[in-house]
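Box 3.1 — From sequence to structure: Membrane-bound PQQ-dependent dehydrogenase, glucose/quinate/shikimate family
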Amino acid sequence: MQAGPETRRWGSWGSIVVGAVIALIGLILAAGGAWLAMLGGSLYYLVVGVAMAVAGALLIKGRLAGGWLYLGIVAVTFIWAWWESGPDAWALVPRIVAPVVLLVAVLLVMPTLSWRRNRWQLALGGVAAAVLVTGVNLWVADANAPNPIWSQLPAPGTAGMADPSGQQVGADWPAYGGTYSARRYSPLAQINPANVGKLERAWLIHTGDLPKSEKIRNTYGAETTPLKIGDTLYLCTPKNIMIALEAATGRERWRYDPKVPDEAIPYTAACRGVVYYAVPGMAADQVCATRIIEGTLDARLIAVDARSGRLCPDFGTNGQTDAKVGMGEVPPGFVSINSPPTLVRGVLVTGHQVLDGQDRWAPSGVIQGFDARTGQLRWAWDMMNPQWSGYPPEGQTWARGTPNMWTIASGDEQLGLVYLPMGNAAVDYYSSLRRPEEKRFATSLVAIDVTTGKPRWRFQAVRNDVWDYDFGAQATLVDFKGTPALVLPSKQGDIYVLDRRNGRALTPVGAIRAPSGGVEPEQRAATQPVSLWHTLRKPDLAERDMWGMSPIDQMICRIQYRKASYKGFFTPPEAGRHSIEYPGYNGGTDWGGIAVDPQRGVIVANYNDMPNYVTLVPRAEANKRGWAPRDQARGDIGGAEGAGDPQANTPYAVDVNAGWRNKFWPFSKNGTGMLCKEPPYGGIRAINMADGKIIWDRAFGTARTNGPFGIPSMLPFTIGTPNNGGAVVTAGGLVFIAAATDNLIRAIDLRTGKTIWQDVLPGGGQATPMTYEANGKQYLVIMAGGHHFMETPVSDALIAYALPD
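Predicted structure (token representation):
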């Protein structure tokens, strides 16, 4: 005689296995949920964890009640998920998908515990219903998620603006940002929304500059945007090889390799672009009458003949000038020029990257102006020694540790001004040792008179910055309601409009009360400036914004959120406890900058929306961990910025979890790799420059190359990924951009914000594209070189697209 279900002591093998899994997950959720509840967080995980442990135990015992209890848990979870996250499909995924997967398993084992004749039909029907309900929930959530904001796109020709750089873009692309006004705009319209779907690869070339070891691979980031002058493209590779190509075919005309050593690489081997200069008064057939100039990772300025690629003998010493002269001791990799100088009135104005987070008394952030013909120093601006106009007096050096300009300046040829987006002092997360002049000029836009090298005005966006919120983007020169102006985006997400003659704000700027505390509360400013005209910044984070691939890692992120110090925007860093910095140091807007359509008066801004998880590490503990400046025995090349930076000669090192990844997961050294904040992590937005209002705003980037543990999901759904690199907007009504981590280049309809063409790149597209005309045909060019920080595939491919003949 067979035993009935009422006499069973144990369930079937299936119910035992499924019950054990549910019970184990329940115990984990109950333990973590109790911790979270004690921290003041959600009670859901504790309650559901206990219920799951009971349901699992019943299933192990062979009780149908365990299955019904778990079904009730899933029903409650659906209600809770919608109550907490609303109609947001990506927010619902970790809340409901994993529980439903377990529900399918429960439904399939329940027939083994029942003696009803139709038990399998009911089970399979239940599975189908669970999958259908989940799919409908996610579809409804996605369909009812907040739609892009729509307003009227200004008509072409309503906001025409002259370009004060004196350059013309169209057939050519004469400067990194199109011109030194940095609008990233082209008047070309051959490619338009009606025909962009036919765009195809016209040519592809390989630069040959690839890392020769895995160690160096972890530093590569090909960020270059080529120039196009006449019939030739000019570009530089990550290690500063200059290359000239035939614009119509990609055929190589010449190359020059400055032989930059690997030890000169800072965090990233990157060369964003080169400079073209036609020397006034020189006959066209003279050597170096036209020249290509670049800054190198080992801080040289190098000039070569634009026609032959040979060094210019009249520039510096045999074509080279060393920008490190006057800096004193400079360890390899501590000073590098990775952005093209800005050329105004024959003066090459350059800053340089000083390796972040290494030493309070790292080399100087001095700004230098070199004669573009002779390579000789015209002037230097050392904020600690403003009386000096040239090299330091004998036996002295430029002041060490001062704020630097690692990114790209813009220039006004008419006013004779260069606009410097300034960084921070030599360590970002400790401020007590900063001098008054450093506090005054750090995280500011400084206008320099190119004739004298003296500051004309400054605009500061952060007071005594300890968040690495230095300006990364070029200011873009525009006309604003009849006033010569510039648009200034920031890492915080604020966008300002300033009179470029005097720095006066043309749009409202307010102040918010800033949180106090941290390790040096007396240093924190009571208020911080914010733009009241437009910001890309989202509301402060809440516990419900935490994310993961399952309820467990979402709970872990909630616990981390509750344990951390978070007082909103500008939360100061602490020691012995993490703090949350939101947005993180990668944006808002970073070095990719913005694009401006001067005919329609439209700003296009791609942006990041991620926090950082930060902690200061006392010096004794940092020493135990072996954190030391890179020039010392314990130092090393590469690594993410801020992740274990020693900040020598201050009381604290710093450890920055950029993007705030969940690093706590069994059997995985680096955790799931998923970010603790829910998507989107990046977006792209069109803004009406007349009033600062949003025209459209969309999540930017798909999930195809992202997934837990670094495994690509290959899902084509838009999630909004981190992005680095800028956009180009054209008179044809298109926005061309790569930048995201999904290795795609896109054409976006400027009117609607919809992607209407895309192509898969052979590497990451962390560079700004450019467009030009050759032989009557419009081309689009992108460097698909990848980027170690963005974890996209490294490549040496430069690709040109065009419409078919």
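Summary of the box: The mean pLDDT is 93.
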